Amino acid sequence: MSDPAPSPDLWPAPRPHDPVDRVVSLPGSKSLTNRALLLAAIADGPSVVRRPLRSRDTLLMAAALSTLGTGLEDRDGDWAVTPGSWDRDGDVDCGLAGTVMRFVPPVAGLASGTVHFDGDPHMRQRPVGQMLAALSALGIRIEDGGRGALPFAVHGSGSVPGGTVTIDASASSQFVSALLLAGARYDLGVDVRHIGKPVPSLPHIEMTVQMLRQHGVEVDDSDANRWAVAPGAVAAIDCDIEPDLSNAAPFLALGAVTGGRVTVADWPTSTTQPGDELRQVLALMGCEVTLDAAGLTVVGPERLSGVDLDLHDVGELTPAIAALCALADSPSHLRGVAHIRGHETDRLTALATELGRLGADVTEREDGLSIRPAPLHGGTFRTYADHRMAHAGVILGLAVDDVLVEDIATTAKTFPDFAGAWTLAVHGVHA
Ligand SMILES: O=C(O)C1=C[C@@H](OP(=O)(O)O)[C@@H](O)[C@H](O)C1
Ligand SMILES: C=C(OP(=O)(O)O)C(=O)O
């Protein structure tokens, strides 16, 4: 990993002096919001997305859909979405949002116009080539200069033939979700077959399938590694967005690390969000975990235990879990997450480097990390424009003096004013 000069923008991570006792309410889920917006935009009538997340990733999705010709209106924080005629050329900024770079091109094929896609510098490194090849096979004209990466253009012709397509989605589940989300609007629907190493983040594909069914779309997912979406209308439905359970990780860690108690309100009793897995992970680390009408409550133990976990299905939780492991009093092994090298940054190298910089004893493996107990010390924790690296940094700051988290504002990707919410949660008062 390159070792850039530390940014002057260093945020002293707040450290509580006593075990905390807090109830927190969190913003909506990025994954649910961006799916809901996209499905609303290709639906057969207007609808409302209630309690959506408004953060960089979802504002980029809203801007992309509006560029195509969709009407989006803020109604007291809700998003009223009116499908429009997609009859123009446009430019889409993907920022660093995987969901924008992967979910929008398959629907841009339905537009009558040329849509250019680009994003943040690092976005040009994130995988998308397999999906662009699949879109070409389904009848969409793509111009990517043979790079298989951003920047690229989608030449929409107003309709997409669709049909059967084979794809290696081992780099990202979002390739599959992207094809399924658009598929009902293709002339033949879409029948996606995965070949290659196992697809990561399967709960996110289940999320896609469940939301499509809620919108009246017929999906056959009865065979492993195959998903078929029948052609037809996408029914307009109003929906409520659950809190973001992956972004709950640092807040639950606050209870876990301080031996205190944190309740995250409105935790759903049933969900496809991978963050729900935190209930099991924190229990394995020694926390008392209760889900009831008040929400999800975590009471931390005197000392956290290390864990041996395959995180292939829930890779986006790795940074927060790795930080907790660095504070545990026995060794941990986190496995099955080679694909997170293609996330906002190479998260395995970034975590090994930054946890190590503060004294942690970390071995980077091809598909994970081994972390052994070691005394930690303060210092700069670099974040590489990755919101979840910032979450890892603030978790360490709960137990270690003088942790300086670089570019805390990078959390705006999925959480508005994270620094304010975190300070309030840690100290009980605003900064
Ligand atoms: O579909 C989604 O909303 C997501 C799928 C996952 O992507 P990968 O399969 O690329 O890990 C996850 O890590 C990402 O944060 C959100
Ligand atoms: C991998 C992530 O994001 P993206 O949707 O950009 O892939 C993430 O939020 O952890």
From TrEMBL:
Major subcellular location class: cytoplasm
PROSITE patterns the UniProt entry points to: EPSP_SYNTHASE_1 (PS00104), EPSP_SYNTHASE_2 (PS00885)
Signal peptide: none
One of the Pfam families matching this protein, by short name: EPSP_synthase
GO molecular function, one term: 3-phosphoshikimate 1-carboxyvinyltransferase activity
Catalysed reaction, written as an equation: 3-phosphoshikimate + phosphoenolpyruvate = 5-O-(1-carboxyvinyl)-3-phosphoshikimate + phosphate
Alphabetical keyword list: Amino-acid biosynthesis, Aromatic amino acid biosynthesis, Cytoplasm, Transferase
Protein name: 3-phosphoshikimate 1-carboxyvinyltransferase
Organism: Nocardioides alpinus
